[in-house]
Amino acid sequence: MNDQHLHESFRQQFGQPAAGVYFCPGRVNLIGEHIDYNGGLVMPCAVTFGTWLLIAPNSSGLLRFRGMNFPETLDIPVQSAYEKQGKAWFNYPLGVIHLFAQAGHSLQQGYDLLYYGNMPISSGLSSSASIEVVTAFTFNQLLQSPYTKLDLVKLTKRVENEFIGVNSGIMDQFAVAFGEHNKALMLNCETLDYTAVDVPLGEYVLAIVNTNKPRNLAESKYNERVAECQEALKALQQELPIKELCEIDADALHQHKHLITDETIWKRVRHVVEENDRVKKAAQVLEQGDLQSFGELMQQSHQSLKELYEVSGIELDTIAEYSQRYPGVIGARMTGAGFGGCAIALVKGSVFESYSKDITTYYTEAIGYEPSVYQSVIADGVRQLS
């Protein structure tokens, strides 16, 4: 989809030209899964794919939401508070505008908003965070609100938690807002301190393989895992002065194993603490330019998500395990919340085409329908395009 097509679509929808164009990428998490809501370290990066928002003020007093990827539309009068409207996509931007209004930054006029995304929906690339952050970034400029980029990240996390009703952490919004070209963000989800870590891809590319098994976070076992982690934390707090599971390392956890009597809860907390340790190791090996060791940590991460956290599934395992055996691949794992969605792999650029064909054939024979295979670079975060 080129810029001209987007502008033509806006004019067709609303009968006027767009006044501004904004873009926010999606993200993949390279390593550090299911620990963002446990105060741990994650290592996401922004990707090439994302969400465009074209916008213009109107004189109708209405917010008019249109999406080129979705049939649902919404025309709603500008007001001082808004409520969630069913389960449609436009709740993500509506929630942002609601929280702006609650903070005293109400809209004084109507706006026409057209969204277009080239990310596969429900794939785990954070299309929802991309929509939220591009909306917040846009209105922060238009309303001349005083929010910093970090304020916008916190606000859009509240949209996800309070307006949408998903107990997600802050990683997705942070990654798509602060992403940097060729760098991963090692983010402390508790303090929000981060370090931009060079990812020396060299002759390798980032392959994103969508299982094409959609999943809805709010209806998946995501909230169940959050509750299991909270149960583990309460048990450990009997002897340890911690506020989050990721305040301890694997050694300290094993010394206090007697506090966790439920085998399932033990598996969950083991994954969280060991995965947090893996992120620290990942930053060290990337700083040394050792992509091979980073790939090995990715594979350990997948194994843990499969066996201890149990958020993978036959689709993701088929992709990750096939990729791990494939010549020219040095690391592969599921990424995102799991239960479908995407896996990622570090693939030698010279074999990407054959890898893409071979994994499509293998997966289709094993699962019964095709995956989608994409190639991405590590990209910049949210920005105004024109």
From TrEMBL:
Gene3D superfamilies: 3.30.230.10, GHMP kinase, C-terminal domain (3.30.70.890)
GO function terms (MF aspect): ATP binding; galactokinase activity; magnesium ion binding
Alphabetical list of SUPFAM superfamilies matching this protein: GHMP Kinase, C-terminal domain (SSF55060), Ribosomal protein S5 domain 2-like (SSF54211)
Domain GHMP kinase N-terminal: 91-179
Entry EC number(s): 2.7.1.6
Pfam families membership: GalKase_gal_bdg, GHMP_kinases_C, GHMP_kinases_N
GO annotation, cellular component aspect: cytosol
Binding site for Mg(2+): S128, E160
Active site: D172 (proton acceptor)
Enzyme class: transferase
Compartments where found: Cytoplasm
Catalytic activity: alpha-D-galactose + ATP = alpha-D-galactose 1-phosphate + ADP + H(+)
Domain Galactokinase N-terminal: residue ranges: 8-57
Coiled coil: none
Record family assignment: Belongs to the GHMP kinase family. GalK subfamily.
Name of the featured protein: Galactokinase
Organism: Mucilaginibacter robiniae
Biological classification of the source: Bacteria, Pseudomonadati, Bacteroidota, Sphingobacteriia, Sphingobacteriales
